[in-house]
Records
---
Amino acid sequence: MKTSKALMYTTVYLTVTALLMTVATGCWSRKEIESLAFVTAVGVDRSPSGKIQMTASFAKSGALGTGERQTSQEKPFWVETVEGNTMFESFRNLSYLSPKRPYLPHNDIYLFGEELLRETGLKPFIDFINRQPQPRLTARMIVTRGATARDFLQAEFEGMTMPSEALRAIINNLVNAWGTIPDLTIREFMCRMESEGIEPIAMCAELIPLEPDIQLEGEVTREKVKATATLGGTAVFKGNYLVGWLDNFETRGLNWILGKTNNTVIEFPHPGAEDKIASVEILRATGKFKVEVEDDNVRALIEVEVVGNIGCVQESVDFLKEPGLWTKFENGVKNTIEDEIAGAVATLQQLGADAVGFGQDIFRRKPKEWARLRDRWDEIFPTIEADISVEVHLRGMGVILKSIESR
């Protein structure tokens, strides 16, 4: 009896193992790299016919090279534009123009034209990105100001072979060295859309035309550059519609509040020589806020603390002889940061878009108060008074103690 049971268990074990091995060895969803066209950037606009216009930038692997081996003038990318009734149809329509299957998982930049987002909103397009398995939710979203996304994808950048790589590099530079753009992913944008008491924001980019009559579709060599571009500032949304912008300094003001300014340079009038400029490098910054509610009186308390070094002065200074200058420099930084924060809050209040998240703070800490204020938040937010407190600590003056003097 025991022998037959052991034989039965062994038979079942071997059968199951054989079936699992059969399934494991199959690659039913494999995609051969030679059959794929890698999309590196996607732009979305409204076409003149009213349909969705999708522009895709593809990597051309055969034209990529480095160092002395790159002797060809062939462009390492190509751009195609198609139309469709939906984002999904538009993406599939790229197959009519590409001999290889368009492949999205490596794309980490989505561009949307200003006009499209003001008239149609983002919801019909972000659904495709969120629903389909190929798009990456860690991709960044850029709104093109004063230009279409299609025009923006005609841009190229000095020193970089791929425009998408250049955009990523510029984004990283601005985040790490200036704090003048909001560094949000598609996932973070959608979280803001669905959250109580906070509005979405995105990066802003503007086109710099060079040769406006050139069309890059179908162009093989890079004899001329049609346009280049610059990033900076913030696109502000109300729900899923674009409603306005923050400039570079207002964007940095918003980042001060949110604690997302890592490193930047602050410039202000030189103490005692107002026609000259002094600059300070901010090495570290923290920011936080909370909202107090008394009946219908809502007040935001904003606290920012920064640590920095003196970077450059246009007027000679000697901190050993004039120790009071140190405090004046700290006050110069303090006043500049306060002005940027106040400017950001004022512009958002004019737009009626709570991109800071004052309402979200009430929702999280005082849900009963939020339930009372929620339906009237559009009226209350523009009237909020902000108390701004900035604490500045200058810890160094570079490698010299005083400025060089001429005889």
Note: The first strand starts at residue 36 and ends at 46.
---
Amino acid sequence: MGTTPGRLHEALRDIGRVSVSRVLFPLHERFKGHDTLRRRRALERTQWWSSQDLEGLRLTRLRAFLGHVAAHVPYYRDLFRATGFRWEAVRSTADLAGLPFCTKEIIRAEGDRLRSDAAGRLQRSNTGGSTGEPLVFYLGADRVSHDVAAKWRATRWWGVDIGDPEIVLWGSPIELGAQDRVRAIRDRLFHSRLLPAFRMAEADLEGYVKIVRSYRPRMLFGYPSALYRLATFARTRGESLTDSGIRAVFTTGERLYDDQRGAIAEVFGAPVANGYGGRDAGFIAHECPAGGMHLSAEDIIVEIVDGTGGRVAPGEPGEIVVTHLATRAFPFIRYRTGDIGILDDLPCSCGRGLPLLKDIQGRSTDFVVAADGTVMHGLALIYVVRDLPGVRAFKIIQESRHRIRVLIVPGTGFAASSRERIIRGFRERLGSMVEVLVETIPEITGEKSGKFRYIISHAVEAAP
């Protein structure tokens, strides 16, 4: 029997994706100095360990981590001495409660004193976070290797792998700013297609639907709000994408609401797997096919604390506090994420021993509307503000398509030039005639619900 062109194309694509997973991506990671493949294989073994064995592994790693930090990180060396904390006496992960919390303010203030003097080359990273407070920190190869390996493991839970064709609906300037020749070649080799979530007007969405159809990705990855917007657009147009070959849709970066999950799954004909983490706190948890939100417990310790800083029982909501054991180069110890979550003390039916997050009541991002009606992700504006010197905190309020207010809590370094950069950056995105009011205030308070919305849009979207 003959082979049809379609089947031949699929066969060649399968050969290509296997070579990426088994050869190209491991070589790529090794070239970058990452130990990703070995870590992923180890994580795929330890995920089936009992909770007791996992706790023993974490304790061993915690003690080694704290010993290194005490010897090589100036800030923590002084903190251990000042608080009388003895890492040698740690007998349980619960003993971390003997240390003060780490906050964004501490990281900004201490800076280089949080670097290990034994660290090699570090990668600069930054995030605006759900509070709108700019934060700069550094990543070592150990941290990056863990986060990539943990994400890779979670992807494979859903029957897809590195090298499977994917479409990423994303908006970070780190990704969008790297569209040079090397990045383009790498994306083609890894079968990854990036679509910007910053611009999601009607014409953009029409193009995205066509790309999904023609590219036939096995997985989608992106913000819940962006994927939901694409799904609802396709549904209102009577476009069915259930035959596009998608096996799983991965969401992260915002809270995933039930109506979003339902619409995304319906339109794309694939299950939705939620993930939770951040550039600062790391890859914290991911959903398995049985519905459990599993913590990356081998290198992540999560505490849930109340308003006084005390730990709350499983089933009770509180702030998520993270200790990342793969951050020797720039430690995150009892780091306050600002997100609200709930731990679960019940096992998952999938059989994995990894502990569970029962719920994440975290951040959610709004869209904004340009003067001409173009809809874009709110992060398009956030990235204008977050890296400016002297910005301690901010909040963006879009009152209409033609007027937007930016509330700034200024610090050292905030100047008239900073104000001008905000106005210029916003007008480049929203329109040259948009009124941009930059106001400095002493403090930014949260909403009545207790959550913080760093961007709020009251603009009316253009009619379809």
Note: Residues 174-179, 447-451 have pLDDT under 50 and may be disordered.
---
Amino acid sequence: MPDLLQGIIQAIGLIFGLDPKVYEIIGISLYVSLIALTLSTIMGVPFGAWLGLKQQFFGRQLIVALLYTGMSFPPVVIGLFVYLLLSRSGPLGTLGWLFTPNAMIVAQTIMSFPLVAGLTMTAVMGVSPELREQLYALGATERQAAPMILYEARVGVIVAIVAGFGSIISEVGAVMLVGGNIEGKTRTLTTAIVLETGKGNFDLAIALGLVLLSLSFISNVLMLYLQEWSK
């Protein structure tokens, strides 16, 4: 217990002492995760909204089943897929992205896209059918009605985006596999925690763990605030 308490005290000292190693890792983590979240939001929200609006077409059930499968897909398998895709002998090996932040962004985008799209679809499907009927009765086309329906589902869309962020900021297997956990280049909060714990640097590992918990807490508080604001 005294060792744990001492580790926490030292960890707090690293955070508030603006330790450059800690903030370098934080910067890389936020850079990779926020770009991946932006890409998955740009693609996932329109796709999920389209699935929520188009509830009857050939192949929809298969697409939804694949989307739900992607939401629970093991991240390390996604990392393996991206690794093989970007390796020298892979179809995209000429890009030279393996063991770079770009590879991590690709992996995290693939991970968060099904979650953002799936939860957006659920939110759009949860909009009252009466609203759709009223819009169509007023002469609105499907394209004209879509923005209003999506606006009504905005709380669910916010939850989808925050959930997507939470899923990638705390992921370790895929980013370690495709990023290589290179110091100063691809070392994120989660991969650094694994490494520093193995090395016995518990003060740094605890510091990074506290930062990770703080980011998760802030994202959830932001989600609750946006939910209240949107109402």
Note: The CA atoms of residues 24 and 184 lie 7 Å apart.
---
Amino acid sequence: MEEFFQQFTNGLAVGGIYALIALGYTMVYGVLKLINFAHGDLFTIGAYLGLSILSSIGLTEHVGNITGVLLLAVMVMALVGIIGVVLDRAAYRPLRESPRLSAVVSALGASIFLQNMVMLIYGARFQVYPQDILPKVAIHIFGVSVPLMRILILMTSIILMLALYFFIQKTRIGTAIRAAAIDQGAARLMGIDVDKVIMIVFLIGPSLGGAAGLMVGLYYGQINFTMGWVYGLKAFTAAILGGIGNIPGAMMGGILLGVIEAMGAAYLSIAWKDAIAFCVLILILMFRPTGLFGERVAEKI
């Protein structure tokens, strides 16, 4: 029972990370009907920016560990969000009226460019995060010791996902995003600046991906310039699982995929960890192509 609970909480934490990345995919697809293949590399940039800020500024030494990590997360999210906006202006906006395949090719090219840029700047070796940022303590839940880091990652993921959900559902900008996702032409006739909406989408999605990259660095302690490819594919799987273009679906799909992957690695074999994720993708595409929450088209975003 203890092993099951440990794997379950680990799956929830990893699933929260997948869900944050998946939200970037699903928001861009909801508005532009485009799979942003460079999104995984923005997640990688978030992890490397977090390491750079930690190493150069030393936030935790000046304001304390917890406050330092919070400030670090805000800075990383802001910087990656700005990079996402620049990516849209450079790689996607010029192709807005072109065939969809052109934008897909541009997204793949942007992914390759960003991945190699990170490699040239930081090198091809694994980079290691400082290990003394957050205390290595455990909290006892139902008699089982759960690492504090795991709980913090899960709670932070849930807070960010709920904040995004309420932003989309309860604010004027969120209403504009939902309108643009349903029909851009009608949204323009209603006075909505669709280009501004797209800019906001490219600001929010990558910022959540950057936060996820920082979490991976703090959780696992090491990062690599290629990790965006693996995490990006799994987050894309999570988005498909929940229903691409559906924000609640991306949240639930990420968490569900993380739990399935953790349980499969524990009770089958860790060597099958990645294969399990893609088997889930194949099964969903075969038996429910719209995803678990993908039927209510008018609610998509």
Note: The radius of gyration is 19 Å.
